[in-house]
C-alpha cells in the first residue's frame, strides 16, 4: 500500500516539474485514460510541446449513403429531371414491347420488365406513332376508295393528325392519372393493398397501346368484317394484358371494387378502339360524294355520237 502511495507521489512530482517547464502543455487525468480509445490523444512534438489531434475514422457505407441523399436533386422544371425517364436502350424497349404481346397469368409486366425503372421513351413514341398511323391510314382509305369509285371526292384531312394526337395522349395520361389516384385512395382504406407509382401506371398504359398500331394498318383492307375482327382481337389482347398487370394490385381489395375497377379499365379501352374505328374509318359522309347536280350535262341541241346511248342525254 505504501509503495503505491509512493509511486503516485513520484508521478505527481514529475507532472509538476513538467508543468513548470512547459506551462502551455495539456494534461490528462487517469479517468481520461480509462476512456475508450479513438477520441483525443496527447502527443509530444519535436519542440517538446504537446498537441491534440483528432483521429479520423473511415467512412462507413451508411455515411456514404446519407451523403448521396444530401446531394441536390434537379428541379422538375429542368431538363436533367426528365432525362432519367428516357435513359433506356433499344433492347429494353423491345423487351417491354414483347411483354405486352404475350399476356400470361402470373407474369407481371411491372415486376418482370420494368423492375422499378419505368421509362417515358417507349410510351411517348408509341403514342406518337399510333396517332400518325391513324391519320395517315384514314387518309389512305379515302384515297383508295376514290380509285375504286370515281364519284368519291377526296381531299387530304390534315386535321385528323391533331385529333388523333390529342385523343391518344389524353387517354395515355389522364386515364393512368385517374387509376393511380383511385388506387392511392383505396390503399388508405385497405392498408395491406399495394399500388404502382404514377410513372409505372403511365408506362403500363403507354406500352398497352402498341398492339393497336398493326391493327390500324390492317384496317386498310376494305372488308368491313375483317376490320371488326382485327379490332376485336387487338382489343382482347391489350385488355387481357392490362387485367393481368393490374390484378396483383386490385386482388387485395374487395371483390366488388376489384371487379368494378377492372371492368372500367376494359370499358375505357374498348371505347378508345371503337371511337378510332368509327371516327377515322367511318363510312363516307355525303360531302365526299359528288352530288348528281354537279355532274355536267350535255345541252339538248348537241347531237349525240352514235355509240352513246340515248339514256345518257339527260
UniProtKB/TrEMBL annotation:
Keyword set includes Membrane: yes
Sorted UniProt keywords: Membrane, Transmembrane, Transmembrane helix
Domain Yip1: from-to ranges: 101-273
UniProt membrane topology term: Multi-pass membrane protein
Gene Ontology molecular function: small GTPase binding
GO biological process: vesicle-mediated transport
Places the protein is found: Golgi apparatus membrane; Golgi apparatus, cis-Golgi network membrane; Golgi apparatus, trans-Golgi network membrane; Late endosome membrane
Bilayer-spanning residue ranges: 120-142, 162-183, 204-222, 228-249, 256-280
Domain of life the protein comes from: Eukaryota
GO cellular component: Golgi medial cisterna; Golgi membrane; Golgi trans cisterna; late endosome membrane; trans-Golgi network; transport vesicle
Family under the similarity heading: Belongs to the YIP1 family.
PANTHER family: PROTEIN YIPF, PROTEIN YIPF2
Protein name, UniProt field: Protein YIPF
Amino acid at each position: 500500500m505504501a509503495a503505491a502511495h509512493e509511486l503516485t507521489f513520484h508521478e505527481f512530482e514529475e507532472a509538476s516539474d513538467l508543468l513548470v517547464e512547459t506551462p502551455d502543455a495539456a494534461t490528462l487525468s487517469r479517468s481520461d485514460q480509462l476512456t475508450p480509445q479513438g477520441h483525443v490523444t496527447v502527443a509530444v512534438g519535436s519542440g517538446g510541446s504537446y498537441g491534440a489531434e483528432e483521429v479520423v475514422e473511415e467512412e462507413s457505407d451508411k455515411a456514404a449513403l446519407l451523403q448521396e441523399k444530401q446531394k441536390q436533386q434537379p428541379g422538375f422544371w429542368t431538363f436533367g429531371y426528365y432525362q432519367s425517364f428516357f435513359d433506356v436502350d433499344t433492347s429494353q424497349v423491345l423487351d417491354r414491347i414483347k411483354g405486352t404481346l404475350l399476356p400470361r397469368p402470373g407474369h407481371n409486366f411491372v415486376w418482370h420488365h420494368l423492375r422499378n425503372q419505368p421509362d417515358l421513351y417507349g410510351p411517348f413514341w408509341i403514342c406518337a406513332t399510333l396517332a400518325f398511323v391513324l391519320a395517315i391510314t384514314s387518309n389512305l382509305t379515302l384515297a383508295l376508295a376514290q380509285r375504286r369509285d370515281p364519284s368519291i371526292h377526296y381531299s387530304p384531312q390534315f386535321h385528323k393528325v391533331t385529333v388523333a394526337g390529342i385523343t391518344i395522349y389524353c387517354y395515355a395520361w389522364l386515364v393512368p392519372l385517374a387509376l393511380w389516384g383511385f388506387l392511392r385512395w383505396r390503399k388508405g382504406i385497405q392498408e395491406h393493398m399495394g399500388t404502382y407509382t404514377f410513372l409505372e401506371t403511365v408506362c403500363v398504359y403507354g406500352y398497352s397501346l402498341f398492339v393497336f398500331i398493326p391493327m390500324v394498318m390492317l384496317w386498310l383492307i376494305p372488308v368491313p368484317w375483317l376490320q371488326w375482327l382485327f379490332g376485336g382481337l387487338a382489343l382482347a389482347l391489350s385488355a387481357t394484358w392490362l387485367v393481368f398487370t393490374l390484378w396483383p394490385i386490385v386482388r387485395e381489395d374487395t371483390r366488388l371494387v376489384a371487379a368494378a375497377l377492372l371492368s372500367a379499365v376494359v370499358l375505357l379501352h374498348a371505347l378508345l378502339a371503337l371511337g378510332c374505328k368509327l371516327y377515322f374509318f367511318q363510312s363516307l359522309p355525303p360531302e365526299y360524294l359528288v352530288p348528281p347536280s354537279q355532274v355536267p350535262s350535255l345541252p339538248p341541241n348537241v347531237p349525240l355520237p352514235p355509240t352513246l346511248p340515248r339514256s345518257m342525254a339527260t
